[in-house]
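Listing 4. Sequential folding, example run.
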Amino acid sequence: MSRPEHIGPPELFYNESEAVKYTNNTRIIEIQMSMSSRAIELLNLPDDQPSFILDVGCGSGLSGEGITEAGHYWVGMDISPSMLEIAVERETDGDVVLSDIGEGVPFRAGAFDGVISI
């Protein structure tokens, strides 16, 4: 089976209708929250202060909600404009950036206390 990114552009797989279906799927929400919680735990961040987290492939911001619930701040980056539009519509607490991780990270080194990618 080929990986989606080898078959076509992200708009083909994460267009507006697919992005809405993904974001509203209760099983996806449960998985995203569980995995983001575990990823934050594994970062071993200080308990006494909020940290600044980069969410690579943030999509519609589901993992970002887990970051916010853990008391941290976040910025998300994703290749899909449709997913990011939903993140903005949902009024997630983090900022989102349209960016392709394959082209590098558009932030200076050391800007974040940790990174997750769920």
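-- end of first protein; second protein begins --
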Amino acid sequence: NGSSLGMAWRASHILVKHEESRRCSSWKDVEGVKIRARSKEQADEILRGYRAKILAGEAKFADIARTESDCGSAAQGGDLGNFGPNEMQLPFENAVKSLKVGEVSDIVHTDSGSHIIVRTQ
């Protein structure tokens, strides 16, 4: 449950996959047609729009995650549960560690795609 050495975090994320993602398919795009046609820059632009709406109070993080995230965690509003060191890709873990609880990250790139993250614990 991510409790190694007593260090654990909890976060939610919105993942937008793109042509450079290690797995170019998702629950939203089983064949990966849209994902393969999306550049990394386009994915980042989509996330900038989501982030702006969240920060302006126009939308809730979990609501956008539920309908727009390419991760299976979308069903839980993007919630990834508790995790500890070395359980997530390093850029993701480093971003979560740098956030205050409730803070929304800027865009984070991993092998999975482009993310925005909110630290919840």
